[in-house]
Amino acid sequence: MDWLDNLVATFLDFDAMWQVFPQLLGVGLVNTLVISIAATVIGVVLGMIIAIMGISRSRWLRVPARIYTDVFRGLPAILTILLIGQGFARASQQIFGPSPYPLGILALSLIASAYIGEIFRAGIQSVDRGQLEACRALGMSYGNAMRLVVVPQGVRRVLPALVNQFIAIVKDSSLVYFLGLLVSERELFRVGQDAAVLTGNLSPLVMAGLFYLIITVPLTHLVNYFDDRFRTGRRKPTPPKSGLDEVEEQHKGAPVSLTYGENS
């Protein structure tokens, strides 16, 4: 059973896990969430713009949106991160200083916006065209009809897909370490990797993986909840009440009076 002992010592060294736990919690988890949330927010804004351009009647808007989407969806994420992180490093240093943190967020935002734009476009186009025609018949402009009626319905339909995309961004945030983050800016993977190199043990990386699971697994179940909620409706059908149930409800809480000697 030596192989089993070696396996446990390599991946489940609890002492090594406990030593890296404070850094994973206080540094890695915080930075991973900051990168992921910032990239998602920027990606949602850019993605909505790309989606509106993609369904526009103007070819001058549709073609650039299509090219943008094809480029950033077609390139590997690590290649996009390296191109932006190293290509704009000099300009970033003049604005943000030596930290490559903003460039990592920008790269992830561009990647996310290409996917989110397609998600929004599919959701908007899934709305019945009669909704838009009805708004136009009521005198609403095309822009107001899209902004107030069509787009909100489309966004509601793609909420599960947006949560899935956030999960993908959380996992892709581990690639930002290629840009050489500062010690205080390390995300979960980099913290686990540095500890694994120092200890010669893979248990810190396993601990980092557990942190990723803590983030992604609940979100996955949240996606399933949203999907079931939107597919079946907000209210579950209630079974019809029998006559006995209606009688019991009518007499529920009614005062009961007994005359003297009635039960004697």
Which sequence of SSEs, written as H and E, runs from N to C?
Answer: HHHHHHHHHHHH
Q: What is the number of beta strands?
A: 0
> Which CATH first-tier class would you pick?
Mainly Alpha
Helix segment tally? 12
Kindly report the CATH topology: MetI-like fold
Let me know the largest β-sheet: none
Percentage of residues in DSSP E strands: under 5%
Let me know the CATH homologous superfamily.
MetI-like
Report the C-alpha radius of gyration, rounded.
Answer: 28 Å
Helix content: over 70%
What are the main properties of this structure?
76% helix; mainly alpha; MetI-like fold; 12 helices
Commentary on this structure:
The protein is mainly alpha-helical. It has a single domain (12-237), classed as MetI-like (MetI-like fold). Helices cover 76% and strands 0% of the residues. The chain has twelve helices and no strands. It has helices at 2-11, 14-54, 59-74, 77-87, 89-96, 101-125, 129-137, 142-157, 159-172, 188-199, 203-232, 243-251. Helix 2 packs across helix 11 (203-232) and helix 7 runs antiparallel to helix 8 (142-157).
Question: How do the helices and strands line up, and which of them pair or pack?
Answer:
Blueprint: H1 2-11, H2 14-54, H3 59-74, H4 77-87, H5 89-96, H6 101-125, H7 129-137, H8 142-157, H9 159-172, H10 188-199, H11 203-232, H12 243-251
Helix pairs in contact: 2-3, 2-6, 2-9, 2-10, 2-11, 3-6, 4-6, 6-8, 6-9, 7-8, 9-11, 10-11
Short structural description:
The chain has 264 residues and is an all-alpha fold.
